[in-house]
Each structure stands twice: as C-alpha cells, then as structure tokens.
Amino acid sequence: MAYEEKTAAPRPPHRLTMDGRRDLWMNGVEEVVSFDEGEVAVQTSQGLLYVRGSALKVDKLEKTSGELNISGQVSSLEYEEVQGRGGFWSRLLK
User: Fold this and answer.
1) Contact between residue 69 and residue 87 where contact means Cβ atoms under 8 Å apart
2) Which end of the chain has the smaller Cβ count within 10 Å, N or C?
3) Residue 91: pLDDT above 70?
4) For the chain, what is the domain count?
5) Would you say residue 6 has pLDDT above 90?
6) In 1-94, which residue ranges form alpha helices assigned H by DSSP?
C-alpha cells in the first residue's frame, strides 16, 4: 500500500459585496451559526463574522458553493478576534 500524504483542502476565498447597506452578498461561507432580525452570525473561511442591523433576513444560503445573501438595514460588520492573540483584557491580565 503506497503512502499518501493528506493535505487540508484549500479554503474558499471570502468576499463581501454590499449594495447601499441594504443587500449583502458573500462567499466563503461555511455555516450560519445564528440569526434573528438584529444579528446574523456567519462562520466564514476568514473567521466568525457578525452582521448587525435591523430587519435582517437570510434570503439565500448555498452550502455547496458557500454563498449567502442577507437583506435588511446593515449597521455593522464585525469579525471575531482570531483565537490565540487575545483581546485587550487578556493581554492586560497576563
């Protein structure tokens, strides 16, 4: 039996496009972690992304292609801090 080296599959690129703070399209989506009218949490190939606003609605999720469309009034996009680096308080209390 021949030795085969297993490598991790490359992560799909992550791209965001927003039209007038009302419609948001993205790819590189791995899963929608949670959602309601005020916040959608999305696991992307670049980390956890929080989309905040009002009247948010997940219009389309294609798990095979990693595409997601969100409509509503978007007020902020925030990526969760990468693990291991730590936030302000964790650095302060070391």
Assistant:
1) no
2) N
3) no
4) 1
5) no
6) 88-92
Distance CA 22, CA 47 (A): 23
Q: What residue numbers bound the domain in which 43 lies? A: 15-76
CATH code for the domain in which residue 48 is found: 2.60.40.2000
The reply to whether 29 falls in a domain is yes
Query: Band of the pLDDT at 12, cuts 50, 70, 90?
Result: confident
Best CA proximity match to 37, nearest among 16, 18, 58, 19:
58
pLDDT digits (tens, 9 = 90+) for 22-69: 999 999 999 999 999 999 999 998 899 999 999 999 999 998 899 999
In total, the chain counts a number of residues equal to 94
C-alpha 37/C-alpha 11 separation (Å) is 29
Instruction: Tell me how far apart the alpha carbons of residues 93 and 35 are, in angstroms, rounded to a whole number.
Output: 33
